[in-house]
Design brief:
The complex is a heterotrimer of chains A (343), B (266) and C (266).
Chain A (H helix, E strand, L loop, with lengths): L2 H26 L1 E7 L5 H8 L2 H4 L3 E7 L2 H9 L5 E5 L2 H8 L4 E10 L6 E6 H5 L12 E4 L5 H12 L8 E4 L3 H9 L5 E5 L2 H7 L3 E6 H4 L2 E9 H5 L1 H23 L1 E2 L2 E2 L5 H12 L3 H4 L14 H13 L16 H9 L4
Parallel strand pairs in A: 1-2, 1-3, 6-7, 6-8
Antiparallel strand pairs in A: 3-10, 4-10, 5-8, 5-9, 11-12
Chain B lengths: L5 E14 L5 E12 L4 E5 L6 H8 L7 E9 L7 E4 L11 H11 L4 H14 L15 H14 L4 E5 L7 H18 L2 E6 L2 H7 L2 E5 L6 E6 L14 H23 L4
Chain C lengths: L20 H21 L10 H14 L1 H33 L1 H14 L4 H12 L3 H25 L3 H9 L4 H38 L5 H10 L3 H29 L7
Helix pairs in contact in C: 2-10, 3-4, 3-6, 3-8, 3-9, 5-6, 6-8, 7-8, 8-9, 8-10, 9-10
The chains are: A alpha/beta (343), B alpha/beta (266), C mainly alpha (266).
Amino acid sequence: MSPARRVALALPAGLLAIGLFVASAHAASLVKIGALKLTSSAPLFIGVDKGFFKEFGIEPELVFFQAAAPIATALATGQIDVGATGVTAALYNIVLGGEQIWLVADKGREWPGYPLTGIVVQKELYDGGLRSIADLKGKRIGITTLGSTFHYSLGNILEKSGLKLEDVRVVPLQTMPAAIEALKGKQVDAIMLPQPFPGTAEAQGFGKILFWAGDLHPWQTVAVFFSKKFAADRQRAVAFMKGYVKASRYYYDAVLVQKDGRPAPGANYDDVVRITARYTEARPEVIRLGFPFQDRNARLLVMDIERQMKWWTDNGFMKRTIPLKGIVDTSFVEEAAKAVPEK
Amino acid sequence: MLCPARMRVIVDGLSKTYRDRSGQDVVALDGIGLTVEPEEFVAILGPSGCGKSTLLNIVGGLLGATEGEVLFEGARPAGQPLTATVFQEFALFPWRTARGNVEFGLEELGLPAAERRDRATRFIAMTGLEGFEGKYPHQLSGGMRQRVGIARALAVEPAVLLMDEPFSALDAQTRTLMMEELLGIWERTRTSILYVTHNIQEAVYMADRVVVLSRRPGRVLEVVPVELKRPRHEGQMGEPGFVQASERIWGLIKSQAQAALVEERR
Amino acid sequence: MAVERVAAHDRAAFLRRADHRLLRVGALVGLLVLWEALTRVGWIPALFLPSPLGVIRELGEMAASGQLLVHLEASLRRLLLGFAFGAVAGVAVGVVTGFFSRAEAVGQPLIAATFPIPKIALLPLLILWLGLGEPSKVAVIALGVFFPMAINTYAGVREADPLLVRAAVAFGAGRWSVIRKVILPSALPMIFAGLKLGAGTALLLLVAAEMIAADSGIGFLVLHAGNIMDTTKLMVGIVCLSLLGVLSHWLLTRGERLAVPWRHTS
């Protein structure tokens, strides 16, 4: 073959090879993030919208779910790399059942003064005098599923008021929209749902927010999880975490900073409201009601994890607790927090 | 029987026309006239499609006549029906035991349970069903089933017993035995019997008179008397009276039967 | 021509089917053993398909703690109530539309129009009308049972042997006697066929109803166990459902054998 011909052949072959390499690299850095269309996912929306993940070489793809448990399953089967959702019994049982997923970062806590999950009662019942947790005795309370974060909140809140789960009628309604409909149709007396649903219910006039769960029982509610495979890919996992930490700080500075003991709008507040409203498809006025609390650097409240597992075990949702090192890995968020500079 | 009915059946100018599948009028019976005296055993015989079953159904109140009438004349105690039927295919209720079947007509007569039970027991015994009254029809042989059919019809103590080819569905040997039995029962009860058959020997053996019908439209060709002493027995089958009556009847219907053979079924 | 001497042999032997009882049992046991082995070795991840022994152990624990009884009782209650309502209504409508031509003219088109609707699709509507509690669950099961019962009873009534109806009338039965004593017993085999069909549908609808808004029941157990990723409990629920299905079929077959001794349809 003549030299000229060799070059002529090599060129397209080379281009093809480069093209394939670039494409696979592109596909390789695509990270599937499972999330719910809730205010609590705001840091993720921010990270995607403002390109913070891209900054560290990660292509994010948001995959939306209707409830927390399916996200856990998708993580276990590797359908998604990162899950951002409520810490539920399902999650713990997946690990107990032999499939490894990792709790790696904070994404929302029930915290005093910061609305995340609200107990919303029928407007008529509120007007009729239903004002305290004790008044909920014997009532029908709608949640998504048993074993969800709402179930956990409800149980602990009742216990703090001297009641038990058996003192109310818990009605599982499978999805959040279904729960809203059930309250509207008066098929349940109250529901426990996260923002923006409580705000919507009040705005539309059929519900009244009785309490925010965080005021009554604070806990590590929502977290970021890594699938086993993604966690093993250290370089990309840390890169993702860097983007997430940057987004967390942006979020915290915008909506969680307190002034005179109450959260007040900070830097880029309107930007965050806009982004959140866009991704959750809720009205901005409703979003403005409040944002859930999370650590500025997205660090986990590790000790609470142990308490949760004990509660689920005591209530028969888990057979036994898991040793923390078998489920929690804070090394990613620590490494990222150190590496990302403050702007 | 405590107080048997003594009735005469008069069939006068009886005609029956019906519409067949293609919408055409078919004359099944044309001006039938005959009588059945009290305690008489009358056979009706004819080739296929001569309307003998139709005639029986009209007498039994299961069909209406187009012209003419059927009259029952005589003494009938209260609560005793005019007719009862024994069917060729037995028509037993498979979900009832033999006793249950026998008691059916008695239930429809409104008799109290104790009386139903006693009457049924009597006729069960008379028809040789003792020990089998608890069995279901599917557990019984053909001959036994027809015994139930006969007991069921007799139990209501009708003025006239209508029998529509009752032994045609049985094998020849059972048939012969059942014929003997029927005659024995009839000797005791002496109900008038109107007996439809296509079998000449059967008709001559059993009946006092044989009404011979033509093929469709059914008309009475002749009424052939049977001059044989009662009680009838097998030995009489060779006697001149038997043979003559048989030959006479066959002579009447042979050509009819041949024509009926090649006729299309409508 | 050569003279030969050949023995006849059974050329139809290949058509006969043996019972293979040992093979039946062996196959099932073998499958379970293989499954258990694969789970132990790790080829089947325990989270996605729990081992048979694990399921049996969980079953035992749930039975001992009384948990299982709570769920079984809730499911059985809904199943039996819905079944009872649906079956009684279905038989009544089937008899009326089968026997009375005007009722048929009104009822048949209605049934034909509504029968194809998958009853699961009606569940949200029923919940809207009747609430999230027991009534909507029982109602959807009743609806699911109603249609096969009505349709099968109708067919059974239409199929009633006209000879038997005629025989009943011949013995004095009026309209209601015929319905009660001939039509209904006649229709029993078809009614039982309808019951078996209804049983399958009922179980399906029970699970659907319990998955939408319930806090007890086997369907709820399956859903709940799935939600919290307790796949062993999930399998226990599935096993229970399977047993429920097998048991109801067995009961109906036995019941049929007792109630309809003159015919076996299974």
